[in-house]
Every structure is written in C-alpha cells, then in structure tokens.
Amino acid sequence: MIMESKNRRGIFMREIKKTEPLHSQVYHIVKEMIMEGKYQPGERLVETKVAENLGVSRGTVREAFRMLTKDDLLAQKENSLFVYDPEAQDILDIYECRKSLESLSAKLAAQNIAAEQLDQLEQIITESKKALALPDTQELTSLNQKFHDTIAFASRNKQLIQLFEVINAKVLYIRNCILKERSESFAVLVNDHEEIFHALKERDPAKAQEKMEAHIQRSLKVANAALNKQMGDPESSLG
Predict the structure, then answer these.
(1) CA-CA to 53 of 20 to 30 Å: which in 25, 141, 147, 184?
(2) CATH, domain range 4-83
C-alpha cells in the first residue's frame, strides 16, 4: 500500500511500494504532484532531489522524467527540466483540438451511447449540482472530467478515444493550474453539461455536437479570462 509522508518541502507525498516497477510509480507520483499544482508551472525539477525525497535511484527518476517529457508535462531547456508552463497560444491550440475531438465524440455518442452510460451522466450532473451548492471546486473538477471521459468512451471510436487521451492530461493540468480560482464558472459549465446530456438522451447527433462545441468554446473563454487575470492584462485575448 502506498502511504503518505511529509518531505522537506512540507508536501505530503506517496511512498514507494516495492511490489511495482519503481519508475512507473515515480512517474505517477510526480505526475500527480504536477497535476495538483504541488510543482508549479515553470518550476525546475532536479533528479537528485526527487530521488532523495522518494528514496529511489537517480536512474529511476530519470526514466520517470523521460515519460513525463514524452507527455509534455516536463520541458527540457538546455540541461534542465521544467514543469510545463503553457503560453496563451498553447492553450488556444489545445482547446481548438479539444473542440474538434469532443464535438465529434458527442455526435458519435448520441448514436452509440448505452443506457447505463446515460445513467452515469445523469448521476454526474446530480452530484455536480450538490458540489456547486457547497461549493467544492476539487469535486467539481473531478466530476467534470468524468463527464467528458464518459462521452468519449460512449463514442465507441477507438482512434478518437486514443487521441482524446493524448490531450486529456494537458486539459486537466490547465484546469488545475489556471482555472482553480474560477469557481464561479462552474455553474455555467454544469448547465452546459445538462444540455449536452439531454441531446444525447434524445439521440440527436447534430444537437449533441452543437452543444459540445459551444461548451468547449465557453471553457476556452473561461481559460482565457483566467490567464489574462494572472498576466495582469484584462485587455489581452487568446484570439
């Protein structure tokens, strides 16, 4: 069982299980810390420090870092590795890809979705409304991801699902690192989810595609506003 301990940075980290490949565990642990913002965008990661914190070899960490670099969650500059720090154009590019992929997934899901998947979506929306009332931003983010994952799998298109998973980590990273202070936007996005759900339940591919495209475009505007606020430039725009 992976336990938690507090390291020198004052961060609770999962401890290594000796029963699983170490480089895979380190990969998932560091990825989780990046996704949760425990390592900040642009922060330099040093093999020796991570290895010392986790009690593993530098070679193990190096292999995990290689996997994270392949995911584009770490970027190499000269001889150092830094946590992915997306620029405005990166976010625009990711959301443009996401809009095309998820609009298609909604269209296909309207034709192929199973009854139990519709039930799952309805339950996600119910739980999202409860989380909104608290509000619980972390739970809303998790439920949001489950909603989009369910629709992608309901498309039953293996190639689309693979492409969806390629950008999924970056989308979640952007949500966690850029949209974490935008809790006021969740009410609108949950309403969008409800409209998408009804289109899927009606088995209307064109409507489901239209609603999903509008939803992703709205999400892009939220990301844009959050990024501009961080940059201190309310007049700038992603495009």
Answers:
(1) 141
(2) 1.10.10.10
Q: Where are the domains of the chain?
A: 4-83, 88-231
Q: Which of 109, 207, 114, 103 is nearest to 155 (CA)?
A: 109
Query: Could you tell me which residues are beta bridge partners of residue 82?
Result: 44, 75
Q: How far is residue 35's CA from residue 20's CA, in Å, rounded to a whole number?
A: 22
Asked if domains 4-83 and 88-231 share a fold, the reply is no
DSSP assignment letter at 184: G
pTM of the model: 0.78
Under 8 Å between Cβ of 228 and 234: yes
Distance CA 150, CA 143 (A): 10
pLDDT, tens digit (0-9, with 9 covering 90-100), for 152-191: 999 999 999 999 988 888 888 887 776 665 556 788 889 9
Q: How far is CA 95 from CA 7, 91, 104, 115, in A?
A: 36, 6, 14, 29
